[in-house]
Amino acid sequence: MLIGRPGYGEVPGRSLYAPALRTDLDREDAAAPERADADGGVVIEALRLDFPDSGDADRRGAFPDLTDDQIDLLRKRGTARRVERGDILFREGDSSYPFIVIVEGCVDIVAGFETDEARRITSHGARRFLGELNLLTGQGVFLTAVVSEPGSILILEVDELRRLLADEPTLSELILRALLLRRSLLQGSGVGLRIIGSRFSGDTRRLLEFVARNRLPFTWLDLETDEGAELLLRDSRISAAETPVVIWQGTTLLKNPSNADLAAAIGASVRPVDTGGDRFDVAIVGGGPAGLAAAVYAASEGLRTIVFESIAVGGQAGTSTRIENYLGFPAGVSGVELSERALIQAEKFGARITSPCEAASLTVEGGDYRITLTDGDEVLARSVVIATGARYRRLAVVGLDELEGLSVFYAATQSEALMCAGSNVTVVGGGNSAGQAAVFLAERVRHVHVLIRRESLAATMSRYLIDQIDRHPRISLHPQTQISRLDRDGTALEAVVVATAEGGESRLDVGAVFVFIGADPHTTWLSSLIALDEHGFILTGEAAGRVQELETSSDGVFAVGDVRSGSMKRVAAAVGEGATAIRLVHDRLRSIA
Q: How far is Cα 111 from Cα 118, in angstroms, rounded to an integer?
């Protein structure tokens, strides 16, 4: 419901959303948060974020004020409505909400609405608009918007907002930048999901990876170190054996959910069955840079487009903490930010992004292709673009598989850094992914040991990363070394034993190993329908008996990015291939029209 009022009476001089609620934004002196009010009401410390209150100067683009011309433009597309103090514009847990512009009045954004833990995140006054990234992605709502001063608003439904973003590039950039920045501000803020589980649990690690790669706001309570986690479980009558658990909206409790179940619970997934069984012009399998580029160009050119991604959009590139040699981003760009922008762009043009869901088989049906997913859903498409990329290669070390997700990782994101805080870690590999991981981790852990089999990094890593590694005081490079043994205490890694080219050994006391030694193609689901090379990569062009470079051995199926044999393993190259593939899709569709 868009607008409603809470079913409780107002208390003069008090907040609408908790007994005697006071926030740091309300107090002149916020240095020492109070815990109890003189009249017995609950006083709650507000969340301290870099959120400017209504009327403060906007320095980062997260909270822009709209101009008169922009508001007039929005007024032509939206619906005007009066609002009163206490009206709820959207509520935490809602499945969706419209784009709302404040013409007059003030709206508070509240976490933990109508609970004893309620806290005001920020306030928006006239000329501001509400919402963050989930406005466009369809994820569940993490916060509640409550009118604190009466006035008037403009309402645009999301479909109308998408049309506006396509028609008005200047306003589109302003709105999209604000939504992206607001999601960044929510990261690590205590808003959103609560995950309770042990750092030694593989399922805890799986959930942390899923929410981190999808940039979902979350708080992790580690059973090994957080006393409050055990109390919370006891109060909820949950045993440690039932963990990890996820708490959503303060009331919904999920016991060790699958990624798909968690995504469904918070509205972060779009299932293929929602499409009504229609046939698509192009199905894109894989949501990395190549797949997203294909989706943007296909949808923008009027093709009915669907994308399947098994974990999170961005693929392997989405785990890169900073890409500094991507064209157009002189200050660098994280893989997550690049992926989010591409996702919004693809959805803006009408592409359907389905995640998490994984393709299990590809078969021919008449002149179409049938893609069957691991959960049994099926989708028909007139053409297919395969952009499944590659999966991380593992070290041939005894016992490594038992530590995967606990002390052995194949990505370096914020969730892994949290698990390794205060520890020494090892990064294995000499490519750009390893270099980016080492630089990122060095700012968050005690020390990083980089192990490479070559004499130097010169032949395998970009110069800018080599320079950063050389200069960093908490990174040590170990040439011509490789891990020969893992020393562990139960499920905890204590050290790695490394062998040198001369036959010697040394022991490094580390709590985690990050592996970046290449990847194997994700093509086992293709069976014999598509021709592969001896390493499992997809043959295209002349090697597949075709004229066009991206064509596979099967008519109407194209391969792009890292999964393609002979491709350049770079983000920019993958994006170019994804865009080029859509021209070939058009040729294919014209030939069978």
A: 6
> What is each CA distance from 11 to 18, 43, 80, 423, 525, in whole angstroms?
10, 15, 29, 50, 62
How far is it, in rounded angstroms, from Cα 84 to Cα 587? 56
Give 455-467 pLDDT, tens digit per residue. 999 999 999 999 9
Q: Which two tokens stand for residue 181?
A: 């920045």
- The residue type at 494: E
In this structure, what is the dihedral angle of CA atoms 60, 63, 65, 69, given to the nearest 10 degrees? Answer: 90
Distances (CA, A) of 68 to 59, 73, 161, 174: 20, 9, 18, 15
Model pLDDT for residues 170-210, shown as the tens digit of each residue: 999 899 889 988 988 888 778 889 999 988 888 998 898 88
Angle between helices 335-348 and 289-300 (to 10 degrees): 20
Q: How far lies 84's CA from each of 88, 92, 114, 119, in Å?
A: 9, 20, 18, 21
**Amino acid occupying residue 495:** A
pTM of the model: 0.73
Tokens of 193: 């999901």
Neighbouring C-alpha atoms within 13 Å toward the C-beta of 248: 24
The Cα 156–Cα 313 span in angstroms is 27
β-strands 282-285, 475-478: how paired? unpaired
Per-residue H/E/C for 488-521: EECCEEEEEEEEECCCCEEEECCCEEEECCCEEE
C-beta of residue 344 within 8 angstroms of C-beta of residue 176: yes
Pick from 91, 178, 101: nearest CA to 133: 178
Strands (E), 127-166: 144-156
With vertex at residue 394, the alpha carbon angle to CA 412 and CA 461, rounded to the nearest 5 degrees, is 55
> Can you list the pairs that 91-96 forms with residues at least 24 positions away whose Cβ atoms lie under 8 Å?
91/141, 91/144, 91/145, 92/141, 92/142, 92/143, 92/144, 92/249, 93/140, 93/141, 93/248, 93/249, 93/252, 94/140, 94/141, 95/138, 95/140, 95/141, 95/267, 96/138, 96/141, 96/158, 96/267
> Tokens 């006391």 map to which residue?
509
Give the H or E element holding residue 204: helix 202-213
**CA proximity to 70, closest of 197, 145, 165:** 165
Q: Is 153 helix (H, G, I), strand (E, B) or coil?
A: strand
